[in-house]
Amino acid sequence: MQKPKADSIDVKVDSILKIMTLEEKVGQMNQYNGFWDVTGPSPEGGNAEKKYEDLRKGRVGSMLTVRGTEQVRAVQKIVVEESRLGIPLIIGFDVIHGYKTLSPIPLAEAASWDLEAIQKSASVAASEASASGINWTFAPMVDISRDPRWGRVMEGAGEDPYLGSKIAIARVHGFQGEDLAAVNTIAATAKHFAGYGFVEAGREYNKADIGSVTLHNIVLPPFKAAEEAGVKTFMNGFNELNGIPVTGSDYLLRNLLKNKWGFKGFVISDWASIGEMTTHGYAKDLAHAAEMGVKAGVDMDMESYSYIDELVNLVETGKVDVALIDDAVRRILRVKFELGLFDDPYKYCDPEREKNVIGSKENQEAVLDMAKKSIVLLKNNNKLLPLKKKGQKIAVIGPLADDNNSVLGSWRIASKDSSGISVLDGLKQYTGNDLMFEKGADLLTNEPTFINELAFNTTDTSGFEKAINVARNSDVVILVLGEHGFQSGEGRSRTNLDLPGVQQELMEKIYEANKNVVLVLNNGRPLVLNWAANHIPAIVETWHLGTQTGNAVAQVLYGDYNPSGKLPMTFPRNVGQIPIYYSHKNTGRPVDPQPGANMVFWSHYSDVESSPLFPFGYGLSYTSFNYSNLNVEKDSYALNEEVQVSVELSNTGDYDGKEVVQLYIRDLFAKIVRPVRELKGFQLVELKKGESKTIKFSLTSKELGYYDQDGNFTVEPGEYEIFVGTDSNASLKTHFILKE
Ligand code: BGC
To answer: What is the pLDDT of residue 432?
Structure first.
């Protein structure tokens, strides 16, 4: 099929707009959820009846959470055949890290620093979701966050705007592909615009106070990158930003996104966030909230019922200009055209495709590949890893070891519970060894779900004894501990980032019995792991890796895959250090002026080292890499010249391996103080053992500049340092001057 041209779409959109009543226009701006089986009776009772009625009247532009070809066809049919204009619905869903076949949680994927793999993972998710009737995902979440207390860090790409921007682009391209009208691509959403990752103290739905320099340099870049990558929709956040709920922020939505950046797609509210502007204390009532939402630039209302109930009246009483409604409807219809929904509203409803695509061998292989690439080796003393394939007695211990549900992580509404491969099951495939399993303790005392609080086992240690015995009688213990998959995600803020329940106690007891412990961590955010880092010889960060978790972990532990992941977020020494991130400011007193003199007047804590436990960008390999000959081609450059940097990387260890070569800059003095380091380049390099390669980077003004207080991009002449190495503490250093 010929791809429709944008201008011809605009002509078509305008001709539809001309024949729409005001109520039908407002209907396009209304999104309802449909959790029920639309072909059967509804748990929403009368509410559902009202929704059906509204579908018939053309008062609904989109549904979310309806899924499966049969269900989607059923709602689409009502609208197409029974409403006056038959404008098809756009069907949204939270396809966050896969649809039914699950990839690692997004934070884990970010640890791969592998943009190709991340893009592929999003395209697999798009192909499964589209095969199930869905044509729009509420992803990627591109919120930068430096606060692991906030549960939603699992949904993002971590703390850094440069890495976050690259990953945002990869995900948008992965979901949307090259042709949005293709049957296996779906529209993406950059969310949550903006500042949600900076909610105060990591408390969910809280306010965010963000100065303009941080806003423009840290928070906004991944959104801008997503916009430039052609993302079709934006979702606003739940939070207020500097006193204004972002749902009602005309500064963010209308001035910046739509006017300054020129965004042509549409903006959806977050779930009921228009209505919540009253609870925030910003709107007087629902009508007032609807007025502020539409004026600010929210084009579609998710589940507030505010547009559908209030907008017609607001226009008729002259409070809202119909031009704003027309603009919103135009934006929404344009995306529906681009998806090809007007050509065939049922194009995503092919049961045959649904059967063949979902869970296919190819998809399983793709998520396994992504899972292996997401694993980060944090510690490997005495080369305890990789394990030997024969002749080792292995004990597998821990409440999460045999869990095929937790491994799936959070935000996986469409997938079947317990459909993952547990770590134990993955390890069992390596049958050359004697394998014993003891859980040791339960993590939870209730049934975990996406929406309910988890209850932790904090007292029952009755299983310890058996686990200790098994540990004693083994050569190596694989201890699988961490957070339950539902312990991170929306509504999952924590003040304590230790291992929950009795896991710390279990770990100490097992270590007492056998020092050869490999700690396999499952978690959706950075944890506080001081004791483990000081005692346990080998630590592997495996996050929540999705459907293929066990296979990925086993391949890494047994050396069939050499890990190359790097942390996308700093791991603190304690919660009091948060927010802690590599790209901090120097302060006026960064170092102890008289080491050993016990003087306090410098920037430090008196009770803990300032450094993190594991820095951003950190991760080991079974092989070792050496960096040398860092060179910048010239001593000085003109403002618009490209700065050429090279470094030599050698694989000096015993295995072939991959390394993420990271380049950081420091602008030594500027009109606005710059951070001590900023990531400005990285490359994933594969080297055979003994091999060396020269790696080249070029830095343009895009990398060297920054945004000023007003959000204007500027590049200043001055002196820059460059650091290249294996993590954000890279010590190889050079410098250059940028001339006027
Ligand atoms: C979340 C969004 C999500 C929406 C729809 C909200 O609670 O904040 O990220 O897309 O629900 O499920």
So the answer is: 87
Q: What pLDDT does 648 receive?
A: 98
The helix/strand/coil state of 13 is helix
Among protein residues, the one whose CA lies closest to atom 12 of ligand 1: 94
Residue among 262, 259, 280 nearest 270 (CA):
280
Closest ligand 1 atom number to CA of residue 92: 5
Query: What is the pLDDT, as a whole number, of residue 1?
Result: 45
In the reported structure, the alpha carbon of residue 204 is separated from the centroid of ligand 1 by a whole-number distance in angstroms of 13
Report the phi/psi class of residue 281: left, alpha or beta, with left for phi > 0 and alpha for psi in -120 to 50. Answer: left
Contact 728, 681 (CB under 8 A): no
Which residues sit opposite 713 in a β-bridge? Answer: 707
Ligand 1 mean position to 128 CA, how many Å?
A: 20
For residue 81, the one-letter residue type is: E
Q: What share of the chain is helix, strand, coil (3-state, %, to 5)?
A: 35, 20, 45
Q: Which residues pair with 435 in a beta bridge?
A: 394
CA dist 293 and 254 (Å) reads 11
Tell the burial category of 450 from Cβ atoms under 10 Å away from its Cβ (0-12, 13-18, 19+).
middle
Residue with tokens 């004791």: 531
Nearest CA to ligand 1 atom 2: 270
Interaxial angle between packed helices 503-513 and 464-472, expressed in degrees from 0 to 180 and rounded to the nearest 10: 30
Pairwise CA distance, residues 711 & 693, whole Å: 39
Q: Return the best residue to mutate from 271, 300, 301 for the ligand 1 pocket (most ligand atoms within 8 A of CB).
A: 271
Nearest to 517 by CA among 485, 484, 474, 477: 477
- Name the residue of 270, 304, 410, 412 whose CB sits within 8 Å of the most ligand 1 atoms, as the mutation to test its pocket: 270
Tell me the two tokens of residue 330.
């135009």
**How much distance in Å is there from the Cα of 279 to the middle of ligand 1?**
18
> Among all residues, which ones are annotated catalytic?
270
- Closest residue by Cα to atom 10, ligand 1, is 138
CB 15 within 8 A of CB 21: no
Residue whose token pair is 């801008």: 224
Distance CA 511, CA 117 (A): 36
- Looking at residue 2, its pLDDT comes to 54
Question: What atom in ligand 1 is closest to the CA of residue 189?
Answer: 10
Residue to mutate (ligand 1; options 94, 137, 304; most atoms within 8 A of CB): 94
- How far is it, in rounded angstroms, from Cα 148 to Cα 576? 12
Residues with Cβ within 8 Å of 38's Cβ and at least 6 positions away in sequence, in order, are 66, 71, 74, 75
| Mode of pairing for the β-strands spanning 434-438 and 393-397 | parallel
CA of 231 to the centre of ligand 1 (A): 17
In ligand 1, which atom is closest to the CA atom of 191? 9
Q: Is the peptide bond before 192 cis (omega within 30 degrees of 0)?
A: yes
CA of 631 relative to ligand 1 center, distance in Å: 47
Strand duo 517-522 + 538-541: pairing: parallel
Of 580, 586, 582, which is closest to residue 668 (Cα–Cα)?
586
**Helix (H/G/I), strand (E/B), else coil: 652:** coil
Q: Give the distance (Å) from ligand 1 centre to CA of residue 194.
A: 14
In this structure, are residues 212 and 712 in contact, taking their beta carbons and an 8 Å threshold? no
Q: Which atom of ligand 1 is nearest the CA belonging to 237? A: 8
Residues of the chain with pLDDT below 50 are: 1
Contacts of 117 (CB under 8 A, 6+ apart): 109, 369, 370, 373
Query: In whole angstroms, what is the distance from residue 118 CA to residue 70 CA?
Result: 30
Residue 697, strand partner residues:
645
Pocket lined around ligand 1, Cβ cut-off 6 Å: 94, 138, 191, 270-271, 490
- The pLDDT assigned to 447 comes to 97
